[in-house]
Amino acid sequence: MKKLLALLLTLTMVFALSACGGSQEEEAPPAEEGGETVEESSGGNLVGVAMPTKDLQRWNQDGENMKAQLEAAGYTVDLQYAANDIPTQVSQIENMIANGCEVLVIASIDGEALGTALDQAKAEGIPVIAYDRLIMNSDAVSYYATFDNWNVGVKQGEYIVEALDLANAGDKTYNIEYITGDPGDNNINFFFDGAISVLQPYIDAGTLVCPSGQTEKQTVATANWATDAAQARFENILASYYTDGTQLDVVLASNDSTALGVANALASSYTGNYPILTGQDCDVANVKNILAGTQSMSVFKDTRDLAAKTVEMVDALMKGSEPPVNDTETYDNGTGIIPSYLCEPVVCTTENYQELLVDSGYYTEADLAS
Ligand code: BGC
Q: Which residues line ligand 1 (CB under 6 A)?
């Protein structure tokens, strides 16, 4: 009933606005980021899916996978992308609520910034599933569907330890640089700290040395996970600390968009032995780099699995049953532990990409052709 009233109120406001010449366009997301338009309330089966941006490959896949699977399960989907703009994401979520959505699935741009929209969802009794990124400091969040983010970092760290055979390094030292993602994304705490938990003994022993001295998570963060910013920072590092024949042995990059920036910087400004370079997501450009030898590994997170798990959660919420969770300890969003389902990440290299990515139908051979 409350929802019906809210809908009526919104419609009245919309008509009132257009009657006095108010422009709807100002509020609309940029055209290329706009999702499907939901014309009217869908009679109780509308799911709002808010994605951060179309700029990065993975969110397009996440959004499309979820939409397809939700529709196959009989739901109507309002899928929106927000061009990495927080006010746009807030207004998209408000519109989803006004349109009568029953469940919200949100991959936030900034996990701290959705306050008012979430309060509204809570007031309307709409469950919120945080998708991939945890929404922080809001008691409106009901569930969290993600990958085991700590394990993503651990796998990157373990890859480095093995590739450099750090356990048998003796007196040998290796130069390492770090890069992670957006400081407003809670995931960086898991990716970066998970990797460092594995590397720490070798950092303490002096086996891993960081010539730039840029080792703090906040210092090595990258706004919006942007490839350009990653490239610019590494061009700077290479020009400042690696000009006198100093070798760069390894770069811990938390994901593929930042690894791509590092690879671009290496291509333009580095002539030493190519370093080990980690990543995450198996974006097409990065898999191509792995095949070309300019990235060492990525961590594959099959977005089809995450979408499927999220659809199960939505379906359970719609039907009044218990959504699947497999972790009730790890993810405290500041208001308490959020029951979570963690999917398993898998290391991808030249050794297993065929089976993992092509045979599984995630990509075709043609997608990966250079
Ligand atoms: C996701 C990563 C992704 C990054 C940038 C993170 O929250 O977990 O898979 O690479 O955002 O989009």
A: 56, 58, 132-133, 181, 185, 187, 225, 255, 257, 280-281, 301
